[in-house]
Design a protein that fits this description.
Strand content of chain A: 25-35%
Distance between the termini of chain A: 19 Å
Shape of chain A: elongated
Number of strands of chain A: 11
Number of helices of chain B: 20
Order of helices and strands of chain A: EHEEHEHEHEEEEHEE
Helix content of chain B: 25-40%
CATH class of the domain at 2-210 in chain B: Alpha Beta
Number of domains of chain A: 2
Number of helices of chain A: 5
Distance between the termini of chain B: 65 Å
Largest sheet of chain B: 6 strands, mixed
Structural class of chain A: alpha+beta
CATH superfamily of the domain at 2-210 in chain B: Cobalamin-binding domain
Strand content of chain B: 5-15%
Largest sheet of chain A: 9 strands, mixed
CATH topology of the domain at 2-210 in chain B: Rossmann fold
Bound molecules: iron/sulfur cluster
Radius of gyration of chain A: 20 Å
CATH topology of the largest domain in chain A: Beta Polymerase, domain 2
Oligomer: heterodimer
Strand order of the largest sheet of chain B: 2-1-3-4-5-6
CATH class of the largest domain in chain A: Alpha Beta
Structural class of chain B: alpha/beta
CATH architecture of the domain at 2-210 in chain B: 3-Layer(aba) Sandwich
CATH architecture of the largest domain in chain A: 2-Layer Sandwich
């Protein structure tokens, strides 16, 4: 069995695919590429493909790690060149490398993710003549000063519970672009050990600003990088590959 | 106006499942508009998930786009949230592939699969910015055409359409479009063009036919008003399936659709002749694809799509000669690709169970069968010739082979049905549960779905009334009460309201166009989705137009009546239907010789 890790980017309209759509797309592309995918054991064998961290719908990305297993001999070069022919415009394989069979699963390494949010346009929003850059800067400061930001989750049997996600915000800052638009950089905890969705935070920010119409749909969200914990520091997962 | 493409972004951010509207799926065809003579939008009047599961769409997409100077792009009914955004932002309905406004196409073709999608047709025309009635559209507007099963009685839609193509269109549609290309060059007026088209086989231009009613409002005849057009329109039939265009690289959706798999059609038509079944008649005669062709399509399909499931489709798959051999060969051909084959529409007999058994190595979830009626007498009336013995032998075989669940389809309201026939559904299902409960490995899963009979044009039952609303409710109550006492069976049934509307439109005439328009103006759309369907609005539409729905749904037509579709020829003549209809009544106690 061969294990190959890869990095991909997602741009344009492909941002509108859900995580499940992405898995389906990759698996069909791999099947078309005729590369002898490895399957899980059991009654309902599944191709062994994982994307390290689900990409939320609507979010573009530049450095997304994934991994896949093959039966037989497949080099990372063949993998890259063959699958690229089967991917639609908007998905690109940046890099493919062999991974040691006993190395930990990529998904298990994920610790945090860096997002960039750009306010797309506020011309159709009524901000009562407030300067959008300042407004957002202030709202972000207010949001960060909170000790508790509660997110609701629907658990088993539709039970709703609340979780304080404030500790999951590692870093958040805002900048103004020359055009007067606001840009946010959000470094957020992510992965199986807990995390917070950037979409949720942008919606919270809108509430904080007093202009609920500023919600997440007004922003272009982009995931720049995914991090793993290396001793005391966070390192881009892409650099391990 | 800025391009739709640029304005789409902010809309896509705000709607559910935006991937419905992207149009750049794998295998989607993008042609240059300015280099193509005739541009057609294929409009499916339901949501993307439903439309993309329709094999007709894929076949026509292939057959038209195979021509260099023709192009076809797709459009579906937008979901409610998308429609709201489009109307808010003044975004006209656009084709998926190139985001071109529908009004800029030469022709818009609607696929008419079921009556409950009719309000979506009007809504889509309106979203395209086109007048609903063909008489109000001008020479620069696209032609609006229809096809699919409902075009065998298109009268309720006639005033909105320029023409319908009857029957199978994979050869007729490209021919029509090429004709349109020639016409565009010569630049004559619309009526001339329609006249020219009506000389083509299977083309029905409703404008050349006037329905005439007597003083009491009964349809007397449909009279053609132009001496040059043929008096009867005969459906198109593809003579050789092996030679007909077939999509081996269909568009692969991003989102999950209703039937998300590769489909190879084994044969077209069905010779069984169940008397309620429109598909059985309009797709006659039976034509087979050769095993060699099927296998080559299967290989191409899986290679070009990456699907992991291949459906061997037809109206009654176990009727393909030596289908067991065929399955073996397909298995051989696809070896190593880990493709699952599935055989829908299985008959309820041992042979079918054996086939299913061969296909489902591994997990056995559930098998679907359609006995339709629970008494032998009633099954004879509808010509569903399976005996009680067949049913139990098949079920026993399936249980022995490891199946643990069954889905059973029945119908209520069939001609001659009595309360006893309905009660027999309960009894039969209880019997099945009692017999097999202890014999399956886990728990026996039994689900029962009960539809209401809708009399359809071009069937032996076309003269039969639908049960009255009250009777439908009463018979459903028999089921509800009966099944309440039996544990472990899932019962579902079709709403009486939607079945009634289907019956109204299935046998409706041209006067219903006003009802349809009214219902749409009142806000009816996506009527096939229970969360959007509002019978109150429909009732209001009946009231405001003064149209009596019962006169359509619940009337018994006589053999002498002029039927709204009498001038359209489905390939089987009325005499045959009359004979079959009479047989239905006389066969009940003749020992089943029919
Ligand atoms: S119900 Fe099925 S078997 Fe009967 S005629 Fe129709 S397609 Fe054929």
């Amino acid at each position: 069995m061969v294990r190959i890790g890869f990095l991909f980017s997602r741009t344009g309209h492909l941002a509108y695919l859900s995580h499940l759509d992405m898995l389906r797309l990759f698996i069909r592309a791999l099947r078309r590429a005729d590369l002898n995918l490895a399957f899980s054991q059991g009654f309902n064998p599944h191709p062994r493909l994982t994307l390290a961290l689900p990409l939320p719908l609507g979010v573009t990305a530049s450095n997304e790690p994934g991994e896949v297993y093959f039966d037989g001999v497949v080099t990372s070069e063949t993998f890259k060149s063959e699958i690229e022919k089967q991917l639609p415009e908007g998905l690109q394989i940046i890099k493919a490398v062999p991974i040691e069979p006993d190395a930990p699963a990529l998904a298990a390494l994920v610790e945090a993710a860096m997002y960039r949010a750009e306010l797309r346009s506020f011309s159709d929003l009524s901000l009562e003549n407030r300067d959008p850059g300042k407004l957002i800067q202030n709202s972000l400061e207010m949001l960060l000063q909170k000790e508790e930001i509660l997110a609701s989750r629907t658990g088993k049997k539709k039970k709703i519970s609340y979780l304080n996600v404030r500790p999951y915000i590692i870093e958040a800052e805002s900048e103004l672009t020359p055009g007067g638009l606001a840009v946010l950089k959000l470094l957020l905890k992510a992965g199986s050990r807990g995390g917070v969705s950037p979409v949720f935070l942008l919606d919270q920010l809108a509430l904080e600003s007093g202009f609920p119409s500023l919600r997440a749909v007004c922003w272009n969200l982009h995931r720049e990088s995914i991090y793993y914990q290396d001793g005391d520091t966070l390192q881009p997962l892409s650099e391990r590959m | 106006m800025t391009l739709i493409k640029d304005r789409l972004e902010s809309v896509l951010k705000k709607v559910q499942k935006p991937a419905r509207y992207l149009g750049n799926e794998w295998n989607a065809v993008h042609k240059e508009h300015h280099k193509t003579a005739v541009k057609m939008a294929f409009a499916f009047p339901d949501l993307y998930e439903v439309g993309m599961s329709n094999q007709g769409l894929k076949i026509l997409y292939e057959s038209v786009n195979a021509h260099n100077n023709l192009l076809m792009e797709r459009v579906f009914a937008p979901a409610v949230d998308m429609e709201a955004e489009m109307r808010k932002q003044n975004l006209p309905l656009f084709s998926l592939e190139s985001a071109t406004p529908l009004a800029e196409f030469d022709l818009i073709g609607f696929s008419l699969q079921y009556e409950l999608s009719y309000t979506n047709v009007l809504n889509m025309l309106d979203l395209a910015g086109l007048p609903l009635f063909s008489s109000e559209r001008n020479d620069n507007d696209p032609l609006v055409i229809g096809g699919g099963p409902c075009s065998f009685n298109p009268e309720p839609l006639a005033p909105f359409f320029d023409l319908f193509i009857l029957g199978e269109s994979e050869e007729a549609l490209p021919a029509l479009l090429l004709n349109l290309a020639a016409y565009k060059e010569s630049g004559r007026n619309r009526r001339d063009m329609l006249k020219r088209f009506s000389a083509m086989a299977g083309v029905y231009v409703p404008d050349f036919f006037d329905p005439l009613y007597n003083e009491s409002g009964v349809l007397e005849r449909v009279k053609k008003n132009d001496s040059t057009v043929p008096a009867r329109v005969v459906k198109n039939t593809v003579s050789n399936l092996d030679g007909a265009p077939y999509p081996t690289a269909p568009v692969v959706p991003y989102i999950q659709t209703v039937h998300d798999r590769a489909v190879v059609e084994l044969f077209r038509g069905c010779a069984r002749g169940c008397r309620f079944c429109q598909a059985g008649y309009i797709f006659r005669p039976v034509r087979r694809r050769s095993p060699e062709k099927i296998i080559s399509i299967a290989k191409d399909l899986t290679a070009a799509t990456g699907y992991d499931e291949l459906s061997l489709s037809s109206l009654s798959s176990s009727d393909y000669p030596q289908v067991d051999e065929l399955i073996k060969e397909i298995d051989q051909a696809l070896r190593g690709d880990k493709v699952r084959c599935s055989l829908p529409s299985l008959r309820l007999d041992s042979y079918s169970v054996e086939l299913a058994d061969r296909l489902h190595q591994g997990r056995r979830s559930s098998l679907t069968f359609a006995p339709e009626a629970a008494t032998e007498r009633l099954r004879k009336v509808i010509k569903k010739n399976i005996s009680e013995d067949d049913i139990y032998t098949a079920l026993s075989d399936a249980v022995a082979a490891g199946w643990q669940g069954f889905k059973l389809y029945f119908m209520i309201g069939l001609p001659t049905e009595t309360n006893e026939d309905v009660e027999a559904i309960v009894t039969m299902c209880r019997d099945i549960r009692d017999r097999y409960r202890g014999r399956v490995r886990g728990t026996l899963k039994l689900s029962v779905s009960v539809a209401t009979f809708v009399p359809k044009a071009n069937t032996p039952f076309q003269w039969e009334p639908q049960l009255s609303f009250q009777e439908i409710i009463e018979r459903q109550q028999i089921l509800i009460d009966g099944f309440r006492k039996i544990q472990g069976i899932d019962l579902s049934w079709h709403d009486a309201e939607t079945s009634f509307l289907e019956a109204v439109f299935a046998r409706g005439d041209r006067r219903l166009a006003l009802l349809l328009e009214k219902a749409w103006r009142l806000g009816c759309r996506l009527d096939g989705w229970s969360e959007h369907f509002s019978f109150d609005l429909w009732q209001q539409a009946f009231k405001e137009t003064g149209i009596n729905g019962e006169a359509y749904a619940n009337r018994r037509f006589s053999y002498d009546d002029c039927l709204p579709w009498d001038h359209l020829d489905c390939g089987t003549d009325k005499e045959y239907f009359i004979r079959e209809h009479k047989l239905a009544y006389s066969c009940q106690d003749d020992g089943g010789s029919n």
